[in-house]
């Protein structure tokens, strides 16, 4: 398999179009035409990980965090980013990043965190907004199934754990071909009546161009009558963070001990105790201060994340127990998740899990 074929499948597998706008995901470096000989999966594609890839004869690194986040004006090895990228390029090693595409995935980073905690009744904490569109298209009855199949093939009609979802209404369409037209049926300058159906489907915004192309290819009319509407509905199956309920409520200190054990933590930084039991818990792996308000609005008793600053703890406002378990620590299962997903998708490939330490934070006791 060449790199271009492999990354094309990854783009679809992890829905890269669902990554956050600020992120830098996908193929960061590497020749798309090069044959893939070995794949190493890691959390951070640092120089020591590139060395590991070299020693294990891997010419592709699939990383969670993108090593190139902002623009590089030169690559001379003057900092840790440039050293890693330079060594990868010199050794013909490609680097592919996933990051917030996996954060936003329903079965991604936060799904695993919730499962480690044994949370029930899980939901997305911050569903994607302004993410869904609705198409209404008018089709002659005899071609309705062909057009629906094209829509579904292009990715329309997916709602949560259902696909090929649509709604159809029968009706009577009229049109009059005028000079210059080449009608599928009818006569120029004569108004025609046609048995038609109105097909309605919803889809994620990033699929718009593909779906439009599919409809126009499958539709028999010279001019396709359709409308596309932006929906105010949040996409409840894509978004950052997650929340759910513990099997049994816990005292705050017991909950912290439970989290510390589950995540093998040395320390947990947290806001003031509330003197109430913990039942509903919100999580957001990585830097998750942005989810505090959503966790409070969802009625969470506790919220687990990383990179919480001094003033962020004040936003608990005696409503929620904010727990900073560490950036890396909250994402510690990611590499294992990615290896499992990739191994299932590409059963003939061996995916190696990096054994190099990349967490830059250390603790002294």
| Count of distinct strands | 15
The shape, in one word, is: globular
| Topology order in helix (H) and strand (E) letters | HEEHEHEHHEEHEEHEEHEEHEHEHHE
Estimated radius of gyration = 25 Å
| Distinct helical segment count | 12
Report the sheet with the most strands, covering strand number, pairing sense and barrel closure.
Answer: 6 strands, mixed
Structural class: alpha/beta
Which consecutive residue ranges, at least 5 long each, have pLDDT under 50?
Answer: none
Taking strands numbered 1, 2, ... along the chain, how are they ordered across the largest sheet? Answer: 5-10-12-13-14-11
Beta-strand residue fraction = 25-35%
Helical proportion? 25-40%
Distance between the termini: 49 Å
Mean pLDDT: 96
Describe the structure.
By secondary structure, the protein is α/β, with parallel strands linked by helices. Helices cover 28% and strands 29% of the residues. It has twelve helices and 15 strands. The chain has helices at 3-13, 47-55, 80-90, 100-103, 109-117, 144-153, 208-218, 252-262, 292-297, 310-314, 327-330, 334-345; strands at 26-29, 39-44, 60-65, 94-97, 120-128, 132-140, 167-175, 192-204, 226-230, 235-250, 269-270, 278-287, 302-306, 321-324, 351-353. A six-stranded mixed β-sheet has the order 5-10-12-13-14-11. A five-stranded mixed β-sheet has the order 1-4-3-2-15, with helices on both faces. Strand 13 (302-306), helix 10 (310-314) and strand 14 form a beta-alpha-beta unit. The radius of gyration is 25 Å and the shape is globular. The protein starts with a helix and ends in a 12-residue tail after the last strand. The relative contact order is 0.15. The model has no long low-confidence stretch (mean pLDDT 96).
């Amino acid at each position: 398999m060449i790199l271009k074929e492999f990354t094309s499948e990854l783009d679809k597998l992890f829905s890269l179009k669902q990554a956050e706008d600020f992120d830098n995901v996908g193929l960061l470096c590497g020749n798309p035409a090069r044959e893939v000989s070995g794949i190493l999966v890691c959390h951070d594609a640092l120089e020591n990980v590139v060395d590991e890839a070299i020693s294990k004869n891997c010419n592709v690194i699939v990383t969670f965090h993108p090593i190139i986040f902002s623009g590089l004006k030169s690559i001379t090895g003057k900092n840790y980013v440039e050293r890693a990228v330079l060594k990868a390029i010199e050794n013909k090693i490609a680097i592919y990043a996933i990051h917030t595409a996996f954060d936003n995935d329903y079965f991604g980073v936060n799904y695993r965190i919730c499962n480690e905690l044994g949370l029930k009744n899980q939901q997305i904490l911050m569903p994607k907004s302004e993410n869904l569109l609705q198409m209404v298209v008018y089709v002659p009855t005899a071609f309705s199934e062909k057009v629906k199949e094209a829509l579904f093939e292009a990715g329309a009609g997916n709602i949560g754990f259902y696909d090929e979802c649509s709604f159809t209404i029968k009706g009577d369409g009229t049109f009059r071909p005028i000079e210059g037209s080449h009608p599928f049926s009818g006569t120029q300058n004569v108004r025609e009546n046609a048995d038609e159906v109105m097909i309605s489907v919803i889809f994620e915004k990033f699929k718009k161009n593909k779906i439009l192309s599919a409809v126009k290819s499958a539709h028999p009319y010279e001019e396709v009558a359709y409308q596309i509407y932006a929906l105010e509905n949040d996409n409840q199956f894509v978004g950052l963070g997650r929340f759910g309920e513990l099997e049994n409520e816990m005292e705050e200190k017991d909950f912290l001990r439970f989290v510390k054990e589950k995540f093998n933590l040395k320390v947990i930084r947290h806001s003031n105790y509330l003197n109430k039991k913990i039942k509903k818990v919100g999580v957001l792996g990585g830097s998750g201060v942005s989810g505090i308000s959503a966790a409070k609005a969802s009625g969470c008793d506790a919220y687990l994340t990383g990179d919480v600053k001094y003033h962020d703890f004040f936003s608990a406002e005696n409503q929620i127990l904010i727990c900073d378990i560490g950036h890396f620590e909250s994402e510690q299962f990611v590499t294992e998740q990615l290896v499992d997903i990739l191994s299932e998708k590409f059963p003939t490939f061996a995916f190696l899990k990096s054994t190099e330490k990349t967490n830059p934070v250390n603790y002294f006791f």
